[in-house]
Amino acid sequence: MTKKTNSNDAVSRFLGVFRYSAVAMRIVWDTSAPLMIAMALTTLIVGLLPAAIASVGGLFVDAVAGALGSTGVTADSAKTEALTFVYIEVGLVLLMTAAQQANTVCQAVLRVLLGNKINVMILEKALTLELAHFEDAEYYDKLVRARREASSRPLSLVTKTFDLIRNLISLIAIGAFLFQFSPYAVLLLSIAGVPAFIAEAKFSGEAFRVNKRRSAERRMQIYLEMVLTREDGVKEVKLLQLGKIFLQRYIDIFLAIYKEDRSLVLRRGIWGYGLGIIASGAFYFAYGWVGFAAIAGAITIGQMTMYIAQFRLGQSAVTSSLTSVNGMYEDNLYLSNLTEYLEHEVPEQSGSLHAGPMPEDGIRFENVSFFYPGSDVPALDNVSLHITPGESLAIVGENGSGKTTLIKLLTRLYTPTHGKISLEGLPLEEWDIDTLRRKIGVIFQDFARYQLIVGENIGIGDSDNLDSEKEIEIAAKKGMADEFVRDLPSGYKTQLGTWFKDGKELSGGQWQKVALSRAFMRNQADILILDEPTAAIDAKAEADIFAHFAELTANRISIIISHRFSTVRRADHIIVLEKARIMEQGSHEELLELGGQYATLFKLQAEGYQ
Ligand code: ADP
To answer: For the purposes of burial, counting CB atoms within 10 Å of the CB of 466, is it exposed (0-12), middle (13-18) or buried (19 or more)?
Structure first.
């Protein structure tokens, strides 16, 4: 029983090498069925022709030998016959070259189409993912790796599979010819060739499993490479002299991996050599056998030439099959990663409603708790609050107290673990997600700095008005960006960032003004959320922004996270978060009167300014 399971295991491991060939074929088929058929047909032709060419070669030798030993009319007809074989062989060779060329062209075209198709598949999937997926290191790593070799790996696997099939066809054709010489020769050669093939498949499977296990080490290496070579890491790497330490870590990981690889390569080499000798021994045995058969007069010289040519073809077909199997594991690694990434189930964003029954009810949190995946400490613990349209809310609290998490839940980037959040009297999960997101304008602390022109950087706050210069300018004035943008070399058309030619890099505060303007761009939104929007902005600009903030957000709900009490105190309602819970809440005056945490912090900051 155990033995049977073991052998089943061995077989499935052996076949494991080919598991992803079907996946790759399906992707290629979906990319272009005609090209795949053309590739299959040309592969078939290229596989069958060598044996046929070799056998025509044998017939030619016989015809020449016949002409040598004859005179007169017989010699003439033998010459014509020999010439005919030359023509046939030339025809076959031309056909084969054409098929090979067509095959190469198909591959080249497919490679481009396939690269694009897979990248689009990866990006489409990325659009359906939730924020949590991007924060899940393992899954995110799959995305990155899937993108890296999208244009080469699947086609490479298909090409190798086709190569294998072609070689197999060649071998069958050769076997058919050899069979006429002796069925035992066919049997001998196949028995001698199979072990090498099985060993190759086994080692290829092992290399696959070893490499798959290693993804964490690989990820660390890639991360180190990134820190050492990217612009945003380089400042600290230089000043803190981290270069040598990181490089050493990189090398250490390599050495550990290398040790394991070396052992695999060694074993593979030794086995390959041993089994290769057996196969070659059988080959030369058959070679001698054919020679003796010719001497004994059992076959003609032409047949002998043909069989020897077939042997050579057969041997090179075996060698090239082994090479294909050998390289397959890397393509399999890629495809297993791609499949896992694409097949990962993402829960549907289920809601379909576009409005709530009580627009005046605003936002309600009822006993909301939230745990990040894999964490057993709540990031929000039993939070309840209520904000109505026209009200402003400020959230205060130490780093890590749960402020940003609250915003992520409100914007449905995450779903609460317990409790309920509703907008206009309708639970968030019943809202159509696009409608919900259109109702909210938000800038996060770590807002995006798009490498686009300034105008677009602001305009994308409202994709319907992306190109509307008027709207962009109005938003820029509200966010205090207008003034410095006008001084840029090409005004609103100035390219930002360092990726592109003539890109202009902004200061932290300037970027923040751009982001703030982007939030103001969303003037249809009912809720405006600013997560530490002014941390890098100078005090005067901040004062200017908030001086007319109330008027900018009239009839809307505004939520501000800030450490500056000059900003916070303007809010109608303030909550103080501590360790995931609401500790205090009320208006600025109420909280001062309460004399708790808020009052202490406020006084501390006020003293700092005296
Ligand atoms: P704040 O905005 O108040 O500084 P956050 O809401 O960002 O705090 O974080 C609250 C807590 O949740 C912190 O303890 C933090 O470590 C944890 N946390 C934040 N983001 C994640 C995340 N993506 N995965 C796991 N834990 C997180």
So the answer is: middle
375 within ligand 1 shell (Cβ under 6 A): yes
Mean pLDDT over 146-153 rounds to: 80
Cβ partners under 8 Å of residue 192, min gap 6: 278, 279, 281, 282, 283
- Cα(82)–Cα(63) distance, integer angstroms: 5
The pLDDT tens digits of the residues spanning 45-72 come to: 998 898 889 889 989 998 888 888 777 7
Residue 74 has pLDDT above 80, yes or no: no
Is the pLDDT reported for residue 143 higher than 90?
Answer: no
Q: Which of 128, 154, 182, 173 is nearest to 29 (CA)?
A: 154
Atom 21, ligand 1: residue with shortest CA distance:
372
Mutate which of 135, 372, 530, 532 for ligand 1 pocket (most atoms within 8 A of beta carbon)? 372
Q: If you write DSSP's letter for every residue of 63-83 in order, what string do you get?
A: HHHHHHT--HHHHHHHHHHHH
Q: What is the per-residue pLDDT for 6?
A: 59
- Mean pLDDT score of the chain: 86
Q: Is the CB of 397 under 6 A from ligand 1?
A: yes
Nearest ligand 1 atom to alpha carbon 399: 4
Spatial contact of 16 and 206, defined as CB atoms under 8 Å apart = no
**Ligand 1 centre from 354 Cα, in Å?**
30
pLDDT cut 90: percent of the chain above it: 29
- Asked whether 370 and 378 are in contact (CB, 8 A), the reply is yes
Query: Does pLDDT of 479 surpass 50?
Result: yes
Map residue 345 onto helix, strand or coil. Answer: coil
* Count of all residues that appear for the chain in the document: 610
Which residues make Cβ contacts (< 8 Å) with residue 549, sequence separation at least 6?
Answer: 392, 558, 570
10 Å Cβ neighbour count for 248?
11
- 130, 371, 401, 529, best to mutate for ligand 1 pocket (most atoms within 8 Å of CB): 401
- pTM for the whole structure: 0.73
For the stretch 551-596, pLDDT in tens is 777 788 999 998 888 888 888 999 999 999 999 999 999 999 988 8
> What does each C-alpha distance from 590 to 395, 501, 573, 575, 602 come to in angstroms?
15, 54, 10, 11, 13
Contact 403 CB / ligand 1 (< 6 Å):
yes
Q: Can you say whether the dihedral through the CA atoms of 31, 32, 33, 35 is positive or negative?
A: negative
401 lines ligand 1 (CB under 6 A): yes
pLDDT at 361 > cutoff 50 = yes
Helices (H), 296-348: 301-343
**Dihedral, 290, 295, 301, 305 alpha carbons, nearest 10:** 30
**What is the full DSSP assignment across 474-509?**
HHHHHTT-HHHHHHSTTGGG-BBSSSSTT-BPPPHH
The Cα diameter of the chain in Å comes to: 129
More confident: 542 or 455: 455
